[in-house]
Amino acid sequence: MNIRDVDTPALVIDLDKVEKNLKAMAEYCRSHHINLRPHTKTHKMPSLAKRQLEHGATGLTVAKLGEAEIMVESGVDRLLVAYPIIGRPKAERLAALCEKADVTIALDSPEAVDFAARGTSERGVRAGILVEVDVGFRRCGVQDDQAALKLAQRIIDCSSLEFRGLLFYPGSYVTQETQEEQLRKVNASLERLLDSFQANGIPVPVVSGGSTPTARFSHRFSGLTEIRPGTYIFNDRNTMLHGVAQLDDCAGTVIVTVVSKAVPGKVIVDGGSKTFSSDPCLAGHTGFGLVKEDPEAVFVAMNEEHGYLDVSRSGRRYAIGEKLGVIPNHICATVNLHNEVFFARGETVESVCPVAARGKIR
Amino acid sequence: MNIRDVDTPALVIDLDKVEKNLKAMAEYCRSHHINLRPHTKTHKMPSLAKRQLEHGATGLTVAKLGEAEIMVESGVDRLLVAYPIIGRPKAERLAALCEKADVTIALDSPEAVDFAARGTSERGVRAGILVEVDVGFRRCGVQDDQAALKLAQRIIDCSSLEFRGLLFYPGSYVTQETQEEQLRKVNASLERLLDSFQANGIPVPVVSGGSTPTARFSHRFSGLTEIRPGTYIFNDRNTMLHGVAQLDDCAGTVIVTVVSKAVPGKVIVDGGSKTFSSDPCLAGHTGFGLVKEDPEAVFVAMNEEHGYLDVSRSGRRYAIGEKLGVIPNHICATVNLHNEVFFARGETVESVCPVAARGKIR
Question: Following DSSP, what letter does each residue of A281-338 receive, concatenated?
Fold first, then answer.
């Protein structure tokens, strides 16, 4: 089947582009002796997680336990849950996972240490722990080396937990101008942390950082041992606008149909926020996606099922019923809205793949 | 089970508030002799669709055929698909639905008439058709009375289609100041249309309009016979900000857990854009939801799994692991992200209900 014969809206993933993206990131990591632990939040599909492992990933990253459970069920045996596990029910699920796989979690509070310790010790299993440190992004993460040391010591004191190192989130989208400045700040934080751990005789085997936008300067982060990029497998309009991908690197395209052109200067397509997500694009730009067939069309607005293209400055003629390919702003959020995706190579659909870990918010 | 014992993030629906909201809208419609055809896109659950029918709704509205199929499978037999059905596969699905239920669709192009005519005539069924007219919102809809008449005539000429009237979308959020102005414009359009149809001897049994924000002045739209509000069943932060609901009318609350407070002045909760959607709130306001426990907390940002509360101006103390209730900006988009919701009355969870029509984008 041709990708234009799929009923719309539909998310089509080009497997040739996926392979190219996986290979390029794997090669970057190999050449810099950095471990690659891809974040599966972008694709949410065990088959693609396995391709990442086959390309040499040392393990995989997930955000939520529900995602981890899907991945472990499908045979993935090395996972980082890069999210604080809080509460008894989740601590018990974590412990159950530790029976089946080598699981590491990230945390930034003594409460989270205690939940993990209790869950694992009651079940007689062990979990690896990374202490999340804030290097300037101000989301999660302890604020200084003393807090990090204290937390590490609390972990070391629990026999069912293994302190494995530090995790940081380097932010996502930085401009070229601020990149060097940001790098300096992050490295100052990391160096102070690593010095303190060394002074206290606590080994730090893992320093985990790195998003897709920052991936290619990961080798310049002080002491970094692994990165967790997610978006690189598919890319999207935001990675393009950020200059870390080209259109040809974008593996995910939403195919939509023109359903109305009754209003002059406007074309309505059958995908809106329920198909693309409402995620905006990189600051300084506008629009909700890139129409591949018409760079002059502006994806100006959405309702749940309506996408509004402003075509008033376009010379292209649109027909009711014709199909268009749109690169979404944020592919991770888009994938999460689709029950299944269509795997293709070029113009040919090869198979339909359920998005097994979509909607796993707990 | 108490609603605070549900693992998070979780969407809890208060059935007492639902009943109150359903009753109030039904009474408004009854008192003004307006037919009520609620839009099920807000709840996506057949059990709530049936409650709407039991409260006197003359039928239900859906946006996509996938939603219609779920509703018809569960026994709903009068449906309006308020969306253009374009393409052969969808025309065939429409015809299959017409075998099982009384289905009306809205459209605004001759192409859409032809798709519907072909699908229904091949299967030997009939579909009702409303011609969508643009009364100023500039999304879908023919632009003037001549175009509407032409389309109606094309429908009348097809033996498998039945022209049932006009459909318009009155916009959603208008300020009190612009309300009278907007009403005047919409009525001018409607009156011209109805005059033209009368002059041409074409009866217009149905004039369908009305969103939740405009619902309560529906009786002032010229010639209107039915409304299609959706959000009123649950309400949300946007209907509150718009002044058409109070906090006590909001039936949908997302329960989240505090997972980090490592960064001073900030609290991170375990629901982000994968739980709430990124839908912004009404222009002129900011934030992604209302924290019921702390009106001084500002829900300033989200990543997929992280909600950022700015609590720097709050006197409240937060604890890791505590649960908070958040009213989302846009409940329809929130519901669509949840595989199931928790039905409650007050503080007590009564049951878990799958969101059967979630993700039905086709």
Answer: -STT---SEEETT-TT-EEEEE-SS-EEEE-TT------TT-EEEEEES-HHHHHTT-
Q: From B9, which residue of chain A is nearest by alpha-carbon distance? A: A362
> Among B170, B202, B234, which residue terminates a domain?
B234
Q: What are phi and psi of A203, to 5 degrees?
A: -65, 145
CATH code for the domain of B267: 2.40.37.20
B61 and B179 part of one domain: yes
Same domain, B260 and B167: no
ipTM of model: 0.96
Do B307 and B204 have their domain in common?
no
The 10s digit of each residue's pLDDT in A243-264 is 999 999 999 999 999 999 999 9
Q: Are residues B246 and B207 in the same domain?
A: no
Q: Is residue B279 part of a domain?
A: yes
**What distance lies between CA B217 and its chain's CA centroid?**
17
Domain around B147: 16-234
Which residues from chain A sit within 8 angstroms of residue B308, using beta carbons? 139
Sign of the C-alpha dihedral computed for residues B336, B341, B345 and B346 taken in this order: negative
How many separate domains does chain B show? 2
How many Å from the N-terminal Cα to the C-terminal Cα in chain B? 36
Question: What's the CATH code of the domain at A157?
Answer: 3.20.20.10
H or E element that contains B325: strand B323-328
CA distance B33 to chain A (A): 30
Please report residues of A whose CB lies closer than 8 A to that of B258.
86
Name the residue of chain B whose CA is nearest to A338's CA: B359
Q: Assess whether B214 and B70 both reside in one domain.
A: yes
3-state DSSP call for residue B184?
helix
Residue with tokens 């979690």: A105
Interface contact flag, B140 A359, Cβ < 8 Å: no
How far apart CA B127 and CA B57 sit, in angstroms, is 20
| Whether B362 and A258 lie within 8 Å, measured CB to CB | no
Q: Domain for residue B300, yes or no?
A: yes
Q: Within this chain, do residues B211 and B315 fall inside the same structural domain, yes or no?
A: no
- A83 and B338: CB-CB below 8 Å? no
Contact A320 B112 (CB under 8 A): yes
Q: What is the pLDDT of residues B130-184, one digit of tens each?
A: 999 999 888 999 999 999 999 999 999 999 999 999 999 987 655 566 778 888 8
Provide, as residue numbers in chain B, all residues whose Cβ is less than 8 Å from the Cβ of A326.
none
